């Protein structure tokens, strides 16, 4: 399990670096996005990954890894939006956004460690395509919860689904890194 923790941190470090650099380029423009908009952005990324996995020809020179990074970062933005709410104008400096990023990742990583312990690292025997399908399934669940005004009867909330998507995307990136 120690390997998993280090591999997880390495993936997140790559994602966090991109997030911070994009904050420098664009500021916190993402703060105006409502949750369904973030969910749709994640959906687009997951659909593209699935297309890359199924199609023989690629017309854009970006692979799965950049899309998984996008999924992770958009999910973190969504978790921040859940906590802070949507704003009309960008309102967050890089330092605050990075601190919130780190807080959300720490909680999500602990969830991964707890589940990983209970499931015995079953994800290591899964295919990247299966992880992609699970992300798409979680997205459809989130869309349904959003359509239900955020209410669930017996199911996990939106936050848990975003956290699971982050962890599935990290697992996929670990697999893709190990296959090189």
Structure description:
With 180 residues, this protein is mainly alpha-helical. The protein is built from 6 helices and no strands. The chain has helices at 2-26, 35-54, 64-84, 94-119, 128-147, 158-178. Helix 1 (2-26) packs antiparallel against helix 4. The longest helix is centred in the middle third of the chain and has 26 residues, at 94-119. The radius of gyration is 16 Å and the shape is globular. It starts with a helix and ends with a helix.
Please indicate the percent range of residues in DSSP E strands (runs of 2 or more): under 5%
On the 0-100 scale, what is the average pLDDT?
Answer: 94
**Poorly predicted tracts of residues:** none
Order of helices and strands: HHHHHH
Shape: globular
- Tell me the distance between the termini: 21 Å
Specify Rg, calculated over alpha carbons: 16 Å
Number of strands: 0
Structural class: mainly alpha
